[in-house]
Every structure is written in C-alpha cells, then in structure tokens.
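User: Design a sequence. Structure:
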C-alpha cells in the first residue's frame, strides 16, 4: 500500500512524509479500508480502554466509547474559515488570515503525534471514481476516527485506485496529546487547552487540532462535504447542502424526491427515515441521506442530488421504536455508540429509549447512575455511528452516482408561534427568502416569545464562504433550471396558548409530505395566503388520524401582526451582510410586507 501510494500519487507520498516529519508519530498505518483492518483497530481500541465491547447477543459487533467530558460536541467558536480577504468568509464565519493561522498551528502540530500511530485514510465522499465525488486523505492519530471513517465514507484501496495521480483534499487531524516515553495513555486523548477546526479556503486544505469528536474530527463530514465543498460548488455551479434526501413512493410506485434542511435538534434523521402512519398503505419513504446533499443541475435542467456519506452519525437521545423504528433496526448491530449509558447486561441506553428508566446504569462518564441521580445517563449529544447498509429504509438508488432528481426543497425550524404547519413559497425567489431567514428556537420553550436563532438554509456553521454570496448562488441557480423544484417551509413545533404542541409530528408528518408531493405534481390542493400557498383542511389526507378542523385552523393561522414582526426581525441578519446582500432579498422582504398591509387581518 505504501508503494502504491508513492508510485501512483507522488504528491500524496510527499505529503505523508511531510506530516510524518512534522508530527513525529511512532509509526504510520496506511488504511486499506478492509473489514479485517476495521476489526483489528476495534480490538486495539478495546485493549486501550477506549472501546467497551457490548453484549454480543444483545448488540452484536458493537462498541461503546466514552469521550473526555470536555470533548463532546462540535465547537463552532473554534471553527475558522481562512480566506485572504475577510469579506470572503463573511460576517457569519470566524475568519482568520491563512498565513497567521498556519503559523499558529505549526508549533501545535510539531511533535503532536509522538508516542502514537499516524493513520493515513484515503476517503471518497460520493462513489469512488464518480465525477460528482471528492477524494480526501485524512491523516489522524485517532484510531476512533479511523474506524468511524470506515462507516461514514468509502475508504482505503478502492479510493486510492480511483484517485490515481489526481488531486485530493488534505485533511490533517491530531488529537493534540503526544505521549512521552513511559506515559500511560487515557481512553480519550484530546487537548484541553487548544482546539481548532480550520478550513483553508485558499488551497482547500483542512486542519483540525485538539478534539476527537464528531464533526471536529471526522473531516469528511462537515469540513469537507460542507465547508470545502460549498465553496467548490459555488465556483463550479453546484450546491453542497446541509440537507436530508428522501424519496416518497406512492401506491402506484412513483417516487418523488425531496431534499430538506432543518437546524440541529429538529428531528432531521427521524424525518429522513419516516415510517408512514396507519392509513397510508402503499406509501413508502426511502432514505437517501440524513445530513448532507450535493446537488447539481443535469443537462436537462433538473437538479440531481447525491448523499456523499455512506453512514449515519446520529443523535441517540430521543431515538426509539416510535420516533425512528428504521434507525432502531439499523443500530441493532455493527454500531459504534459514543457517550451513551451502559446497562448491567452490557447494552446501551439513552434518555427516551424506553418509557421507564432502568433502575441502574453506568452513565456516559463511567459513573454509577440511578433515576434519582438528577442528571442524564447519556450525554444529550450522545451518538451512534452506523453504516447505511444496515438501514432498512435505504432507497435502492441511494448509492447511484447519477443522483436522484429533486422535485421539492423543504425548510423547517423549531418555532412555537407565527409559522404554520406548512406553506409553499410562491416562486423560487420567495422560497430562497424563507430559507435564508430560517430560524429555530434555542430551547423547546413553552412561551410564545422564545428566542429565535437564525440559521439560513441550516448552513450557518457550515457555509465555507460569505453567506450573502451563497444566497446569490442559490438565486442564480433558479435561472439555470428547466424543472425548478417547489420550495416549502414546514413547522412541526407550533404550540397553542397553553404551550401544548398543536401537531403530533413524527409519522404524522407523512400527511404533509403527501400534500407536498401532490403540489409538485401540479395537482392543486391549496389556497393563497399571506405567506404563500397553504393547504385547506380537506387538502390533507386525514385517514387514520382524528384531527379536527378547529385545531387545524389554529395550526395554520398566520397572524398579520406576528408575521410583520417576524419579517421586521429579519433586518438584523440581512443588514449584517451590508452591500453584499443580493438586492432580490430586500426587495422580496418589502414585497411581503406590502402584501401584508393589503391582506385581510388573519390570512
Ligand atoms: C450534525 C449537526 O451533527 O448538524 O449533523 O450538528
Ligand atoms: Mn448535521
């Protein structure tokens, strides 16, 4: 493998040598991506105390891993986008000068892998060899990262073959915890003092230091497939999006594909794997992806999307047989669990898994736990990592390098008030406006005035360039399409005056999906309201659910004053972009405000 690397891609051979000289690992392991290698590395992690092998009968071939309590989530304040000109990163990113950042990182990486193995992981986001794919090579001193990458991407020899002498994205990662001779390692090494997740947009490389967790460390995901790819997509005329992709198959066997963006904590993975409710015999939801979509116009002017990932890195708390039976089936075996609780019989548990909490557990920090402990047993951001091959709802076209045709975009936040269950934007431009001003309430607060965090297109932490230019890119994409997808906003989280949810959500969201599919087929079923086109009560298929017209009215109500306030509150976000904001967005906002003044009071 070493020879193959050096002879087929001299630039890769040279980069490996450079990183080895800089980071000074004890040894170098070039990952071939085989199952045998995965098993060997998992056994090494068990021997090191990083992994606990779960009960083979209850959860075959699965492991529990506990991170350092200070390394449990993505770190947005330590994530940097480096561009020569600060304005190219824009007001929503942490900007740093590329040369200064390189100078800052250099001494941190110097000797950072001492006492450790340096893993070289060639990986492909998208099918190896496809024109739509991107190849990266991650160098890391974390075996946890190496095994996780095996589940989340194509890795190893097939990728090297596809790479040949071609270009690859350099992804350098160190947990930043060198070991001196004789030092005892800890189960989850990381650096308590320095953490950096950096996209160098001048040469497209990525560097991450100090954290071993999730999107900070699995560099193919948020770093390459979103921050790096979004900039590449802008240059090349495509879109790298924080979106799930699903196919909705009707009883006649016709599949309509939808891509949907939701900020974190809005149930994106559950929606991507939705099991239609009773009464929807013959309808099927087929999962293409739960987190990332790469979307390009084809020669016919249709947008086609691929999910560049091969696995799921999903949030465990709240996942159960009701909220996501497909994911429950997927994680029945061959899964890496991180920061979940351990049961006495060697299985995992998290809040929401069962209605009744087990009487005794070991919590995510390794401490004894009982329901009286007064703290969660699993970390709220506890995760499972599992290959898509295990998920029963996968679409047969999920790995098709040509992608699937997108008929609709759906944007949704967690909003207790103002926004109805669903509406369709009147046109592409208005749809972009509603996506650009997407927001979600920070907490599931019962009060009406919960603070909204703006998260345009749910890309706030992931757009690798100035978001004003990103909006312009989306606006111009509309001009290039012959089959322009319809754009919808949804809100599963509206509450009544007493703070109770008005909509049951989960499987019942299928009713909204069915209406969306019907709209994309121009089969009518809606009326014009101030926000856009909305379904009437009889436009929704209610079979199997007792949901009365009065509650539906409360769910769909758009109050003119509330909507005006909402539109006015967009100022803060829009004005932050200054002169770079596309005029079309300010014009759309004004048109929506003007239309409100002319509309009847509650419509
Ligand atoms: C994720 C996220 O982990 O969006 O997918 O934070
Ligand atoms: Mn995500």
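Assistant: Done.
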């Amino acid at each position: 493998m070493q020879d193959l690397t050096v002879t087929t891609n001299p630039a890769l051979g040279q980069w490996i040598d450079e990183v080895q000289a800089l980071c000074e690992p004890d040894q170098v392991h070039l990952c071939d991506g085989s199952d045998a290698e995965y098993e060997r590395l998992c056994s090494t992690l068990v021997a090191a105390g990083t992994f606990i092998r779960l009960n083979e009968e209850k959860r075959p071939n699965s492991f529990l891993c506990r991170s350092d309590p200070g390394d449990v989530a993505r770190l947005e304040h330590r994530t940097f986008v480096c561009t020569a000109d600060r304005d190219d990163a824009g007001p929503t990113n942490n900007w740093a000068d590329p040369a200064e950042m390189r100078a800052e990182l250099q001494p941190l990486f110097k000797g950072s892998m001492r006492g450790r193995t340096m893993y070289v992981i060639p990986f492909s986001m998208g099918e190896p060899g496809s024109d739509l794919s991107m190849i990266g090579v991650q160098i890391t001193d974390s075996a946890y990262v190496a095994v996780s990458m095996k589940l989340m991407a194509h890795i190893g020899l097939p990728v090297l073959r596809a790479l040949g002498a071609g270009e690859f994205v350099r992804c350098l990662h160190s947990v930043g915890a060198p070991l001196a001779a004789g030092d005892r390692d800890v189960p989850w090494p990381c650096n308590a003092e320095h953490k950096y997740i950096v996209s160098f947009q001048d040469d497209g490389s990525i560097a991450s230091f100090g954290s071993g967790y999730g999107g900070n460390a699995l560099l193919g995901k948020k770093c390459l497939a979103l921050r790096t790819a979004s900039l590449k997509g802008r240059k090349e005329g495509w879109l790298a999006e924080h979106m799930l992709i699903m196919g909705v198959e009707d009883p006649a066997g016709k599949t309509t594909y939808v891509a949907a963006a939701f900020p974190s904590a809005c149930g994106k993975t559950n929606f991507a794997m939705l099991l239609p409710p009773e009464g929807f015999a013959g309808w099927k939801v087929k999962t293409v992806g739960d987190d990332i979509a790469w979307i390009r116009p084809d020669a016919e002017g249709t947008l086609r999307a691929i999910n560049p990932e091969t696995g799921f890195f999903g949030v465990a708390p709240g996942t159960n047989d009701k909220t996501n039976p497909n994911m429950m089936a997927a994680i029945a075996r061959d899964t890496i669990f991180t920061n979940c609780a351990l049961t006495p019989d060697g299985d995992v548990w998290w809040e929401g898994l069962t209605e009744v909490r087990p009487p005794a557990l070991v919590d995510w920090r390794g401490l004894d736990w009982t329901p009286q402990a007064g703290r969660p047993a699993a970390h709220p951001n506890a995760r499972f990592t599992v290959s898509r091959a295990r998920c029963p709802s996968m679409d047969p076209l999920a790995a098709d390098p040509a992608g699937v045709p997108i008929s609709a975009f759906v944007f949704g936040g967690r909003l207790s008030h103002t926004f109805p269950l669903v509406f369709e934007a009147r046109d592409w431009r208005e749809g972009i406006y509603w996506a650009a001003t997407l927001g979600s309430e920070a907490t599931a607060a019962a009060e009406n005035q919960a603070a909204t965090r703006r998260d345009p297109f749910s890309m706030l932490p992931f757009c690798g360039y100035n978001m004003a230019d990103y909006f312009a890119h989306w606006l111009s994409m509309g001009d290039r399409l012959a089959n322009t997808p319809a754009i919808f906003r949804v809100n599963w989280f509206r509450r009544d005056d007493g703070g109770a949810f008005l909509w049951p959500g989960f499987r019942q969201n299928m009713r909204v999906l069915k209406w969306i599919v019907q709209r994309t087929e121009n089969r009518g079923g809606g009326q014009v309201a101030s926000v856009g086109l909305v379904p009437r009560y009889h436009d929704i298929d209610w079979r199997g659910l007792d949901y009365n017209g009065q509650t539906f009215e409360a769910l769909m109500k758009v109050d003119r004053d509330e909507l005006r306030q909402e539109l006015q509150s967009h100022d803060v976000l829009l004005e932050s972009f200054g002169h770079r904001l596309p005029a079309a967005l300010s014009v759309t906002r004004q048109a929506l405000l003007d239309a409100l003044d002319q509309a009847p009071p509650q419509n």
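The radius of gyration is 24 Å. The pocket of oxalic acid (ligand 1) is lined by residues 74, 214-215, 264, 291 (CB under 6 Å).
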